Structure formats: structure tokens, C-alpha cells
From TrEMBL:
The chain crosses the membrane at residues 42-61, 81-101, 122-140, 160-179, 200-221. Gene3D superfamilies: Oxidoreductase, molybdopterin-binding domain (3.90.420.10). Signal peptide: none annotated. PANTHER family: BLL0505 PROTEIN, PROTEIN-METHIONINE-SULFOXIDE REDUCTASE. Pfam families: Oxidored_molyb. This is Molybdopterin-dependent oxidoreductase. Residues 260-388 form the Oxidoreductase molybdopterin-binding domain. Keywords: Membrane, Transmembrane, Transmembrane helix. InterPro entries: OxRdtase_Mopterin-bd_dom, OxRdtase_Mopterin-bd_sf. It comes from the Bacteria.
Amino acid sequence: MRNPIDLPLTPPPDTSRVGPFREGFFRSPVHRPRTAAVVGRALGLALLVCLVTGVFSHFVQHPPGGQAWPSRPVQLYRVTQGLHVAAGIAVIPLLLAKLWVVYPRLFGWPPFRTVRDVAERLSVLVLIGAASFEVVSGLLNTLQWYPWAFFFPAAHYEVAWLLLGAVLLHLAVKWPVIAAALGRHRAAEPREDALSRRRFLWGVTGAVGAVTVATVGQTVAPLERLAVLAPRRPSVGPQGLPVNRTSRQAHVERAALDPGWRLEVRGPRPASLTLEELRALPQHAATLPIACVEGWSASGRWSGVRLRDLLELVGAPAGAEVRAVSLEREGNYRESLVQRHHAADPLTLVALDLEGEPLHLEHGFPARLIAPNRPGVLQTKWLARLEVL
Ligand SMILES: Nc1nc2c(c(=O)[nH]1)N[C@H]1C(S)=C(S)[C@@H](COP(=O)(O)O)O[C@H]1N2
Ligand SMILES: [Mo]
């Protein structure tokens, strides 16, 4: 038996741990909790903006319990949805930065010390999965590319709640680390380390700024020329306005150009109006945006007949709701519900003209619905019928 004096004071090197699994392999301060917390705070804020604006957009399109949304401020939906997509785009560099900061933890050894470790790792897996799903599905949706079988809005909405749960759990588990990392009395560190962290954070800030500037012009008109990465330029399209779904995609070319077209208005005293008859009614103009859920928006000067005048014509009761039905036979956006505030709003038009010319076929000729504070998907083109409910 060896004399205890001969035993080494330090344990022998653990040869089972190689490469990144070795203690002290990742030395950069970029990988420390303070960086993780600072990037995480920005990421959390961007995700919060996405959540609030996203839930808002969901409920505008699916009003809970028949709740009627206000039709003012006119630009509200344009702002919230512009923010939703801009914050979602900012999430991309922030999420990548966060993963870069914390990836060394994948090599922590032993992989699981406690049940809490296992739970934490699982929750982080859900967190990364849900966040990646939201970003990728949202981004592909703005490109109108659907390489999947599920219905985008429903999946994007459901996973948002999963993501919220994972974020809250993560915050709860990590709170002591976050508080210490962001706290005033955090441990002093060498100047060099603080500098290299700052360089990293400036890089991340620059990346967020760059992707924002390169896309936000799709909804902020003065920045349109900088929007080199945006899928849409708000002024590019017939009559200076983009088109989301074309008449060909909607299979309405023939029906929309049919000279026998009439707008049917169902109500207590039903009416059926030709284009000439609609033009003979009092015409009104309104400058209103198309605010697409995909993040672009553009204002146009529309004119036509006030929806409320048509409702009056067919003897609809005050506060009536209306279903606007398009000539389109299929498609998710072939019809929309016009709730009472929108139906009564003097700015809500059955538009016949855009920028002083008859509507272009792609913008909904012969007639389309246009209303204030309303998502683009509800601004039904190629109207066939209005139904008082
Ligand atoms: N009938 C019908 N109307 C529709 C759609 C559609 O698919 N079918 N798309 C909507 C969407 S998603 C948007 S953003 C706006 C775009 O209007 P614009 O093509 O005139 O710019 O039209 C809306 N109206
Ligand atoms: Mo849209």
C-alpha cells in the first residue's frame, strides 16, 4: 500500500474529456452569463413585441365572442403588423447571437448532474425549437413560400404559446444567474474581457440594425429605397401598389371582366347593382393603407361608394354586420366579415377607383372592399356580394 503522502494533490487529468469537453476550453468572455443575459434581454424584448402584436393580429382576424374591433385609428393595424414583422426579423440575428453565446454549454460535463439539469436542458430544447419554428415559418410566410402541409396562421399562433411557456420557464430557472449577471455588483473582470464582449455586442447591434434597415422600408415609405431585402416594395405594382394574390391565382379573371357583373346586396330590401349604378351613387374618397399581415403596407387613394350608404339602401338596421363575398370560388380570403364599427365608418368603401382610375383587375376590379384599421387579408377584392347579417 502506498503512503498517503505520495498521492497526487490534484486529481489526474481526466482523459475521457477531450476537445471542447475539457474544462476551460471556451475562454472567450463572449460565452459568459453576462453576454447571455444582455443578448437574452434584447431577444426577450423582441419576442414580447412579436407576441403582443401577433395576438392582436390573431384576435382582429378571429374576434373572440363576436367582440367588434374599432375602425380607428386608421393606421393602427399597419403599425402593429409592421412592428410584428420588423421585431420578428430582428429576432433572427439575436437568436443566432444567443445560440453562439451559450453553445459551449452543450459540452458541459457531466452532461446531467441533477434532475433539474435534465429538465432545464429539455426546456431549452423546446425553447430553441419553438423560437426557430416561429422565425422560419414567419419568414417563409413573408416570402409566400409554404414548403409544409400545415396551415401557417394556426401553427404560427399555437407555437407562439408554446414559446411563451418555454421562455417563462427558462427565465424562472435562470433567474439567479440572470440577476447576478446583470446586477450592479457583478464580479470585476479584466478590461480586455469587457472590451471583447462590447465588440461582440456592437456586432450584434449592427446586424440587427442592418436587417431592420434592409427590410423596414416595406412598410415605412420613406425608407423604401433601402429595403433591399424586403420581399415587397410598397410602390411597385399596378397603380403603384403591390399585389398579393393575382386574379389568375384566384381564378377570377373571367368573372371579374364579365360585362354582366353586378354587386348583389342581400338585406331586408335586397338590391343588385351594375357598375354604372354603383357609379351613379354618391362617390367618396379615402386614403387608406393595405396593411398585409406579411409585413408590407402601402397607402392608396381609393374612391367609390360608402358601405354604409349601401346598407342604408337595402334597409339594414343600424349596427349591422356584413359579410363581403368575392367572385373567388375557393381560397382562404374569398370572404370577410365587416364588423359593425367598420361597416358604419364613413371611410369604409366599396372602392371602384384607385388613384383616380378604375381599379386595376389585380386590385379587385370591378369593386373591392377597403376599410380603415383592418388587415390586408380582410380587404376583399373582386366583390360579388354583400350580405347583411
Ligand atoms: N378575394 C380576395 N381578396 C383578397 C385576397 C384574396 O386572396 N382574395 N388577398 C388579400 C390580401 S392578403 C391582401 S394583402 C390584399 C392585397 O390587396 P392588393 O393586391 O390590392 O394590394 O388583398 C386582400 N384581398
Ligand atoms: Mo395580405
